[in-house]
Amino acid sequence: MSEKNRQILLISRPKGEVSPANFRLVEAPIPEIGPGEVLVRNHFLSLDPYMRGRMDDAKSYAASQPLDEVMIGGTAGEVIESRNPEFAVGDRVMGMLGWQLYGKNDGRMIRKADTSRVPLSAYLGAVGMPGVTAWYGLNRIVAPKAGETVVVSAASGAVGSAVGQLAKRKGCRVVGVAGGAQKCAIVADEYGFDACADYKAGQLYPDLRTATPDGIDGYFDNVGGATLDAVLRRMNAFGRIAVCGLISAYDGQPMPLHNFRSVLVNRLRVEGFIVSEHMEVWPEALRELGALVAAGELKYRETIAQGLENAPEAFMGLLKGRNVGKQLVRLVTP
Amino acid sequence: MSEKNRQILLISRPKGEVSPANFRLVEAPIPEIGPGEVLVRNHFLSLDPYMRGRMDDAKSYAASQPLDEVMIGGTAGEVIESRNPEFAVGDRVMGMLGWQLYGKNDGRMIRKADTSRVPLSAYLGAVGMPGVTAWYGLNRIVAPKAGETVVVSAASGAVGSAVGQLAKRKGCRVVGVAGGAQKCAIVADEYGFDACADYKAGQLYPDLRTATPDGIDGYFDNVGGATLDAVLRRMNAFGRIAVCGLISAYDGQPMPLHNFRSVLVNRLRVEGFIVSEHMEVWPEALRELGALVAAGELKYRETIAQGLENAPEAFMGLLKGRNVGKQLVRLVTP
Question: Residue B270: its chain A contacts at CB < 8 A?
Fold first, then answer.
């Protein structure tokens, strides 16, 4: 092949906010595959908040992204060469092939995606890691009963929108927290939440109180910070909080929490989780999510940047909440 | 009877710290009992941190202590008159008869105490509510395995000392946090903890780090605040935190928490509880605790104030950590 691979490397760690200077776009040969391996042309790259944590070298649940290597990332693409009998040229697959146009794998870390009823990109969103994240935190930690009130932050995002729709199907009152009137409108009108509080409107606690007249029984937290503090004040006895993300603290800002007392007063259970440690639920969750998406009963939005070279900027936008729904980068010409 | 009952009423709610002016000592007739009732002469009154919460009218897990009524409190005493066939004059009983010399009950809220092998006062401590609190939080929330490191705050107290000794029996490394060299010496030498960090020495985090070389797997929290913050920095993946008390915030001081991020990074489970909501474990817990105390295998200390009139001052001392072990008030002449 005369074409080259293109890759984005992490070349320095952010001091505070992520900057374009932390990345470098390079060319590289397209990898050659050996026996048992497949070569994949990536069509979509997934951008996710967890990547911010990997960019630091602080202690975290996962190893740091090494410097001068291809940025980690979920991808969905097409098999273009195969020396593995389980994969044929033309198969659509998802995997973790990173911020690059081409990647190879021995078949153990990629999975076929049935695109007959679900579009390929959804396997990076509602029928992928974000969807399973929503499914796990909601079903295994928040575990709401019909009639309870469930709140989710970053409600217009890939995870939050799925949390709310799944909770609604369980008969809960579902309230989102999102930034801006536009996102709140989407959360209420498109995803069918009962209400959405706009944290950028500057009166989160009163708005949340109005939206949760019976208090809050379950909270799916994607952001931490002031939103978590406000929610703690509204929690009911025996409430459950799934801690999935603390995006408000990713840049190392202090995130003092003032209402921790609620954990004792209301006998709360607060649990952090990372979905990749619960692989046992993926088949069940993906089956359910795939069926809902195929039937049009689980809605999602995508914000798609065009071209690998625009991935850093799209990622910075994601961390600032500029996207609506799942942030993707399309790596092929549309 | 010519003798009078004496009672301490709550007459105002504290603004910040508890003050003697919040209480009033009054005389009242000794209650007359009706059919099915028993009259108890209280020998010991238990003073406990939870009482501070009841003095406020803020939303909490229990109703506020009403003004101008006898302060709530656990008691141990002797039946001096009975119209209930299940109780005989001379029976030792424990109950919640409040800050007063005499109380009556219909028999449903008092329980006989076998003082043949366990002293009566222990039924307010290691073989009473504090002991069961330790037992529940340790066994049902922290649930440590042999070889894990368990930390407990207020380690010289009635609850903390029992937590540590029970964890030690499970083969854990046990580290206490207590205030002052004297308390730390008791924790290590008398209760057999592996180490004790003195938070008053002004370098809690480094001391805790030294005492927990393998990190912390379980934390039984009686205090919240800066101690909780320091512990959060040392937690291992999948650690468990039982939130039993937040004594550092009882007077309404802000208690900002800075290291909440650890809940996500380390996938912690944090759970608040109140032992009176888990009555199902009391028989099992009290059986185990009673056997250990009788065998001399569960040690405890008591700080005993003399006379009902000294209860308010003893209670204020408890909130400031002036007691060592279980704080009691003796209501009879020694």
Answer: 263, 268-271
Chain A residue whose CA is closest to B233: A59
CB contact under 8 A, B264 and A277: no
- Check residue A131 and report its DSSP letter: H
Cβ count near A109 (within 10 Å):
12
What is the pTM assigned to this prediction?
Answer: 0.89
**Alpha-carbon dihedral angle through residues A311, A138, A219, A236, given to the nearest 10 degrees:** 180
Which CATH architecture describes the domain A5-125+301-330?
Alpha-Beta Complex (3.90)
For residue B284, what are its two tokens? 């099992």
Residue of B61, B246, B256 with shortest CB distance to A258: B256
Task: Return averaged pLDDT per consecutive 10 residues of chain A, 334 residues in all.
Answer: 86 94 97 96 95 83 87 97 97 96 94 94 96 98 98 95 98 97 96 97 97 98 94 97 81 79 95 93 95 97 97 96 92 88
Helix residue ranges per DSSP H, B212-281? 225-234, 261-265
B102 three-class SS? strand
Find residues 269-288 of chain B whose CB sits inside 8 Å of chain A.
269-274, 277
CATH number of B5-125+300-330: 3.90.180.10
> Structural domain boundaries of chain A?
5-125+301-330, 129-276
What CATH architecture is A129-276? 3-Layer(aba) Sandwich (3.40)
Strand order from edge to edge, sheet including A69-70: A23-28, A5-10, A69-70
Total number of residues shown for chain B: 334
CB contact under 8 A, B269 and A271: yes
Taking an 8 Å cut-off on Cβ atoms, the answer to whether B272 and A264 are in contact is yes
Torsion on CA atoms A129, A130, A131, A136, rounded to nearest 10: 80
Strand partners, B92: B78
